[in-house]
Design goal:
Blueprint: E1 24-25, E2 33-37, E3 49-54, E4 62-66, H1 67-78
Antiparallel strand pairs: 1-2, 2-3, 3-4
Length: about 90
């Protein structure tokens, strides 16, 4: 039985104002990664979200992760899961 894939939400679909977030940067070049966290929104039934973008991305794409996805990523970083990519 085929599975239906639900697309990841976008900041626009979640009505997130990107200019109102505090972005933290991994470095200074155009390929630096920037990360921002939203506040939980109980009224919308939403926990904290983590947004990630590339500083020099001309199309301005922003990836959205929920708290669980972010915690899994951090656990992988801490355990060395991505060391071969560095």
């Amino acid at each position: 039985m085929p599975t239906t894939r639900v697309p990841k939400p976008t900041p626009a679909s979640l009505a997130i104002d990107l200019s109102g977030l505090t972005w933290r940067r991994s470095g200074d070049g155009p390929g630096a990664i920037e990360v921002a966290m939203t506040r939980p929104d109980p009224a919308a039934g939403r926990s904290r979200l983590v947004l990630m973008r590339v500083r020099g991305d001309p199309s301005g794409r922003v990836l959205v992760y929920d708290q669980h996805e972010w915690e899994c990523f951090l656990a992988g970083v801490r355990s060395g899961e991505f060391d071969l990519l560095a």
